[in-house]
C-alpha cells in the first residue's frame, strides 16, 4: 500500500523545494524528495531535464523495507544529466529502493552511471535508458547484494583510447545475489557484461550472479566475460555482433570464462555473428587455479567468422586450461574455424572434459590437442565430410577413422 506520493517537477514558476511536494506544489529537486520519503512512499518525477546527482545513502535518505519499498518513478521518461564528470549519476547504498523509468544521460562522463554498493538488498533499477558515458553503465561493488537490474536500455559507452574498456554492466568482487534480466545492452567499447576478478587474493569474489533473457550485441569485447567469480548462470540470452577490436588484442568471443571462475552454468543462449562462440580458459593469474565446474548445454552457436576473430581461428566452443567442463546438447553451425577445439595446450591442460550429445554442422568439426586427460566424447552428431583434426595422430574427413585415431565418439553419428 502506497503511503504518500511526492511530486517533483522541473524548475519553473511555483516550483520550489520549500513546497510541500504535493501534485499542485511539487518540489524542484529530486534530492528534496529523497530526503522526506519514507518506506512505502512513491516519488513521481515529471518529464523534463534535471541536472542532479542522486545519492541514496544513510545521511541523505531512508531505507525501504521488504514490505514497503520506496519507489522513485519517472513520468514520461524524465532525464537526469550528469554535471559532475567524476561522480556516478545515481548511487544506491540503501536496501529496498526501486528506480524506474528515467533517462540517465552521462554526457561523456567517465564515471559509471549507476553504482550499487554496501547494503542494497531488494533494490532495483528497471525500465531506464542509460547511455552516453566514457566509463561503465552500471556497477555493483563494495558488498552490494540482492540487486535486480531489469528491462533497461544500456548503450553507447565508448572510450577512444586503445586499451580503455567501457563496459555495459560490471559486477565487481564482493558483489553477491545480482540479477540482470531482460536488458538490452549494446554499443560498448568493452564487454556488455563483465564479472570482474578481485584485485588481490584476500578479497571475496563475486558470487551468485544470474544473467538471463538479455539482448547483448555490438560490442568491441565480449557479450559476457566471467573472470574469477563463483556460481554464475548465463541463461536464455541473445548475443550477436561481437568482434575483436582493431589490432586484434582482445574481444570477439561471445562468452569468455577465464581466470579462476568456478561453478558456471551457460545454457539456452543464442550466439551469432561473433569471432568466437564460448571460450573456457585462457588468461589466469600465476599460481591460481584454472576455471572449473563449467557446464555448457543446450546453446545454439552459428555464424562464427574469421573476420571477427581474435587469433584468426573462429571456433564455436573452445576449452583450453580448465577442469571439469561439460559440453552437452549444443548445436554449432557455420563456423569459420572448428566447431569445437579442446586441449591444445599453450595456456595449460584441459582435465575431465565431457563432450556429449552435441550437433556440429561445419566444414571443420573437432580439433584435439594432447593436453586433455580424462576427455570423454560420445553421442555427438557430425555433418558429413567435415574435418576432424587429432593433431599428431592425424587428420580425417571420416568418422570411422577419427574413432580409430582417438578411441572417442564410439556411438556418435554422421548427419546428412
TrEMBL record:
Signal peptide: none annotated. Residues 1-24 are annotated as: Disordered. Pfam families: Beta_helix, DUF1565. Residues 16-53 form the DUF1565 domain. Residues 119-195, 207-359 form the Right handed beta helix domain. Gene3D superfamilies: Single-stranded right-handed beta-helix, Pectin lyase-like (2.160.20.10). InterPro entries: Beta_helix, DUF1565, PbH1, Pectin_lyas_fold, Pectin_lyase_fold/virulence. This is Right handed beta helix domain-containing protein. The lineage of its organism: Bacteria, Pseudomonadati, Myxococcota, Myxococcia, Myxococcales.
Amino acid at each position: 500500500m502506497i503511503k504518500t506520493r511526492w511530486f517533483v517537477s522541473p524548475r519553473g514558476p511555483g516550483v520550489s523545494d520549500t513546497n510541500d511536494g504535493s501534485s499542485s506544489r511539487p518540489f524542484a529537486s529530486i534530492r528534496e524528495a529523497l530526503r522526506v520519503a519514507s518506506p512505502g512512499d512513491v516519488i513521481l518525477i515529471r518529464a523534463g531535464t534535471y541536472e542532479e546527482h542522486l545519492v541514496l545513502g544513510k545521511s541523505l535518505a531512508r531505507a525501504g523495507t521488504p514490505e514497503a519499498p520506496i519507489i522513485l518513478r519517472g513520468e514520461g521518461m524524465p532525464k537526469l544529466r550528469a554535471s559532475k564528470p567524476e561522480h556516478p549519476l545515481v548511487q544506491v547504498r540503501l536496501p529496498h529502493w526501486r528506480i524506474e523509468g528515467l533517462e540517465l544521460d552521462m554526457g561523456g562522463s567517465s564515471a559509471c552511471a549507476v553504482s550499487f554498493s554496501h547494503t542494497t538488498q531488494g533494490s532495483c533499477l528497471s525500465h531506464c535508458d542509460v547511455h552516453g558515458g566514457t566509463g561503465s553503465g552500471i556497477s555493483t561493488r563494495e558488498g552490494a547484494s540482492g540487486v535486480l537490474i531489469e528491462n533497461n536500455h544500456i548503450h553507447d559507452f565508448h572510450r577512444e583510447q586503445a586499451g580503455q574498456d567501457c563496459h555495459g554492466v560490471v559486477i565487481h568482487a564482493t558483489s553477491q545475489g545480482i540479477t540482470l534480466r531482460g536488458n538490452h545492452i549494446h554499443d560498448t567499447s568493452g564487454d556488455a557484461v563483465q564479472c570482474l576478478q578481485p584485485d588481490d587474493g584476500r578479497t571475496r569474489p563475486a558470487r551468485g550472479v544470474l544473467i538471463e533473457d538479455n539482448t547483448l550485441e555490438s560490442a568491441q569485447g565480449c557479450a559476457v566475460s566471467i573472470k574469477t567469480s563463483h556460481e554464475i548462470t548465463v541463461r536464455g540470452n541473445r548475443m550477436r555482433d561481437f568482434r575483436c577490436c582493431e589490432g586484434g588484442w582482445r574481444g570477439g568471443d561471445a562468452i569468455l570464462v577465464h581466470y579462476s571462475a568456478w561453478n558456471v552454468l551457460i545454457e539456452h543462449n543464442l550466439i551469432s555473428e561473433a569471432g568466437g562462440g564460448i571460450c573456457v580458459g585462457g588468461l589466469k593469474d600465476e599460481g591460481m587455479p584454472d576455471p572449473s565446474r563449467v557446464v555448457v548445454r543446450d546453446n545454439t552457436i552459428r555464424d562464427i567468422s574469421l573476420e571477427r576473430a581474435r587469433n584468426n581461428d573462429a571456433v564455436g566452443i573452445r576449452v583450453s586450461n580448465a577442469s571439469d567442463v561439460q559440453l552437452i546438447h549444443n548445436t554449432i553451425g557455420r563456423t569459420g574455424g572448428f566447431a569445437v577445439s579442446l586441449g591444445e595446450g599453450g595456456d595449460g591442460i584441459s582435465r575431465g572434459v565431457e563432450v556429449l550429445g552435441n550437433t556440429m554442422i561445419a566444414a571443420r568439426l573437432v580439433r584435439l590437442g594432447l593436453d586433455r586427460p580424462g576427455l570423454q566424447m560420445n553421442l555427438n552428431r557430425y555433418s558429413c565430410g567435415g574435418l576432424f583434426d587429432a593433431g599428431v595422430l592425424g587428420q580425417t574427413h571420416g568418422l570411422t577413422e577419427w574413432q580409430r585415431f582417438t578411441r572417442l565418439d564410439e556411438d556418435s553419428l554422421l548427419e546428412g
